[in-house]
């Protein structure tokens, strides 16, 4: 009787082992609900769109489940913060999928992009209105700015009362720029009955909320060196010498500049890639954290002292005044061409209203 070769015995043993211990893929055995929950957490906490997309391209199952409406509805500002240089049809489609999933932040971001960058005014305004209905404060404020300026239409399309109403709703939700805008409207009697004391109260409240936001941010927990009680020393600091800006000069504090919203960053980058202007004769808001362009010539007001900078709103003017323009503003003997500007902003935070000959002081 012949003895089998050792290789044959080994092969037979392997076949028996595979028969009793079948190979299994534990990933495939995980339920979809668990993976959707994990991907939803990732969508809400990713630091950039690439971090979320890189997870989706790991495997076909992640790619499929990552497009689930529950996952897309949880996508945060950072996850949706697409760069203008990476804008493409697929990026547009991704934002649209998030909108269809009920993501309010995506409604606002895509609405701003369509209204200001793609010049699809109707669709953009509708998306922002959809976000505003869900009490999205930035969308409410942006619609207020559109109403104040008559953006996308003519000068006669301005609706100051509607702008004030939208601004008041955003301010009630704690939007800092809306608080500033509403404070200036009340001080100036712009679209609402003038109430200087109530306007001042809103401006102080905006500063207080800004300070609270900085104090509660994780990045500022390690250092409080920007807090000071010497406003005169702050104003002597050269603009651009550090990342800190005297936004709270009313309180004698020096705080970091607020982080721009992804929609504002997208617009600023979009027009920078196209020569820094939204079109012939059109201007961008001079506040670096805004990014809004004019939709018609002379839509924005400009500084009545230097005649160089211009702003989409009183809030942007007040912020830019404290951030940098206070150190740069200087009277010019010859102004740039104005050609029927809608209004002017004075060098101390006031605005020269249409068809009026005197400045309305509204320092923030």
Tell me the layout of helices and strands.
Elements: H1 6-20, H2 32-45, H3 49-56, H4 60-65, H5 69-73, H6 77-80, H7 89-100, H8 104-117, H9 121-133, H10 137-149, H11 160-172, H12 176-188, H13 196-216, H14 231-236, E1 244-248, E2 253-256, H15 262-272, E3 301-303, E4 310-311, H16 314-328, E5 344-345, E6 351-352
Parallel strand pairs: 3-5
Antiparallel strand pairs: 1-2, 3-4, 5-6
Helix pairs in contact: 7-8, 8-9, 8-15, 9-10, 10-11, 11-12, 12-13, 12-16
pLDDT < 50 runs, ≥5 residues: 229-246, 346-364
Mean pLDDT: 80
Alpha plus pi helix count: 16
Radius of gyration: 27 Å
Class based on secondary structure composition and strand pairing: mainly alpha
Q: How many beta strands in the DSSP annotation?
A: 6
The end-to-end distance, rounded to whole angstroms, is 105 Å
- Helical content band: 40-55%
State which percent range the strand residues make up.
under 5%
Give me the side-by-side strand order of the main sheet.
Answer: 4-3-5-6
Largest sheet: 4 strands, mixed
Order of helices and strands: HHHHHHHHHHHHHHEEHEEHEE
Can you tell me the overall shape?
A: globular
